[in-house]
Amino acid sequence: MTKVQVKEANGKLGILTVGVGAVATTFIAGTLITRKGLGIPVGSITQLATMRIGKREENNFPKIKDVVPLADLNDIVFGGWDIFEDNAYEAAKHAEVLTNEDLDKVKDELIAIKPMKAVFDQEFVKRLHGTWVKSAPTKWELAEQVKEDIQNFKKETGVDRVVVIWCGSTEVFTPLGEVHKTLAAFEKGLKENHPAIAPSNIYAYAAVSLGIPYLNGAPNLTVDIPAMWDLAQKTQTPIAGKDFKTGQTMLKTVLSPMLKTRMLGLSGWFSTNILGNRDGEVLDDPGSFKTKEESKLSVIDNILQPELYPDLYGNVYHKVRINYYPPRKDNKEGWDNIDLFGWLGYPMQLKVDFLCRDSILAAPLCLDLVLFADLAKRAGFSGIQDWLSFYFKSPMHEPSKIAEHDLFIQYVKLKNTLRRMIGEETIDYLD
Fold first, then answer.
1. How far apart are CA 59 and CA 112, in angstroms?
2. Domain architecture of the chain: domains with CATH
C-alpha cells in the first residue's frame, strides 16, 4: 500500500467557528478542559478510539491519535463569529449546557474568545435578531470582510493553519438554483446581492477561496453546491457536510441497517423531537424546519433501498416533527415509533425514547471533524471528503455516487482512509 504523503502538523491550528453558541462553546470549553487534563473527551474518535493495524492475529490496536499525524490539542487556538457580542464564557453561561463548575475551569480562556461580527440576513433565520453583524453594500464585500477576518486572526494568533466549521443555526430551506451551479454565476450573484445566496454560502466562499477547509454542521446548502465543489478543487481545499449526526438520526442509521440486513419489513416510522435551545427556537420557523426535515427524511430511504425491496420498504410512511419546548433547553428528547413486520407479514413495533443532550453529542463531532479536515488538507486531499460521512445526517458526496448512510459502513470507510494515509493495508474483514 502506497503511503499518502501527509505533511507534519507543525505549528498552531486555528479553529474558527461560525456561531459561538451552545454547540461551539460546548466544543471549545470541552476541548480546553480536556487539554488541561480536567475532563475526558467522551464521544471523540480522534482522542479515544483505537484502530486495528495489520492482521487480526497480530492483536495490534493502537489509539488513532498515536498512529495518525493529527494536530495536538495543545496546538489549537479558537476564534469565531457570532450575531451576538457575548464572549465565549458569557455565551456558554447563556446556553446552559455545561455547569458553572466546568466553565470556571477554563473561564479566562473563554473570556478571551470574543466573536467577530457575523454575516447575518434576517430572511434566512427568521426567529433570531442579530445585534453584532457586518454591513456592506454587497455580499461580495461581505465575503471580502470574512476573508480579512481570517487573515487578521492568523496574524494576531500566529496560527499556521486554519479550519472553519459552521456551528450556527439552520437557515431557511433554499433549493439549488442557477446561481449555485457555476463558480462564475455564484461570484456574479455575490456582486449583485442574489437573494438565494445565504450567509453560510458567504462564509464558505471566503474560506475555500483562501484554501481553508470548511465543514458544514447544519443542513444548509452552504458548500453542497457545484460552484463550491469547483472552487474547492481549484484551491485544493477539503470540504465536508452536512448537518451533524447526533441524536435521532444517528439511531436511524443504526436501526435501519438492522432491519435491512435481517430482511424485516417496515410500514411506518414516526419521529418527534422536543428541544428548547436556540436551535429549537430557529426550527420553530417552518422555513428552517423544512431544511432540517429534508435532511432527516432522506436517511431511511437511502439505507433501505425501496426500489430494490418493494415488498419490504415500498410503502413506508415516514413522518418527522420537531417541537420547540423551552423548559428542556439543550436537553433534547427524540421519540420514535417504528411499525415493522416479520415472517408472513405479522406486525411488530419498536419504540425508542432518546433523552439526549444536543450539544454534548455535537461537541466531540466538531473536534473530530476539525482535526480530520486539517489532516485531509495536509494529505493533499481536496473537494468533498465523503470518508467523513460518518459524522453527517446528509453526507455530501460526488454527484456520480450514491450517498452511504449506514453508520457501520461509514465507520469502516473512515478507518480505512486513515489506514491508507499511514501506509497500512485497508481491512476487508475476510481474514
1. 45
2. 13-244+360-421 (3.40.50.720), 248-357 (3.30.360.10)
212-242 pLDDT, tens digit per residue, is 999 999 999 999 999 999 999 999 999 999 9
Closest listed residue to residue 134, CA positions, set 125, 152, 121: 121
Number of other residues whose CB lies within 10 A of the CB of residue 42: 12
336 in helix, strand or coil?
Answer: strand
CB 429 within 8 A of CB 278: no
Contact yes or no for 95/22 (Cβ under 8 A): yes
For the chain, the residue count is 431
* End-to-end Cα spacing for the chain: 17
Angle at Cα 10 formed by Cα 4 and Cα 11, nearest 5°? 150
pTM score: 0.93
User: Other C-beta atoms within 10 Å of 319: how many?
Assistant: 12
Distance, in Å, from the CA atom of 280 to the CA atom of 273, rounded to the nearest integer, reads 9
Alpha helices in 305-406 (DSSP H): 310-313, 358-378
